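Good morning,

Both structures are done.
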Amino acid sequence: MKQLPVTTTERSSMYQFVKTMDLYNKRMRIDDYYGHLEDMHKVWMNEMVESHCEKLIVKVRVEDVLFFLQEGFVLEAFVERYFSGNNMIFMCKYFSDD
């Protein structure tokens, strides 16, 4: 039977983010985030390894695009006025050779 995706909110003193784990499709998606990007990125990378997911999808604010590009993410799509009227970009990082 297919395992359904699970959405949770994770918090620390430095950040907060909402993630959806879709283990059936080997994907993790970050739906929203606030705080220290470097700390969150480390957490996400560890979770990708532990969960054996192959694709990390992040809904990125325009002002954070450069950080994600420098970390090896690729642009996938653009959505106007997604974050309270501000634009959003879907960015992905792949962890498989397929």
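Second structure follows.
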Amino acid sequence: MNKIRKRVRAPRAPAPWRVQRKHAGVYTVVDRNGIGVISSHQVAQSNAWLIAAAPDLLAACKAAADLLGDMDSETTGDVYAQLLRAIDFAEIQNDPQ
């Protein structure tokens, strides 16, 4: 029997996010209030910048999906479906319960 997964919106820290270098090898991504979103020795500098850009990237994906949604699938190809999957993945968290 397949288990139905409940889809729940994950809470988000307020954008914009930015990167702060705490000390050698440690980068912290903080929200607009300066509260840490993620901090780790394992978060490389390039990953920290990508994580910090996440809210803006999600907004850009939504804007692009809105534009592509009005076009026919022959014009958009698989790009529209890719955007919708990325948005869904970013906004929805599967509850293992």
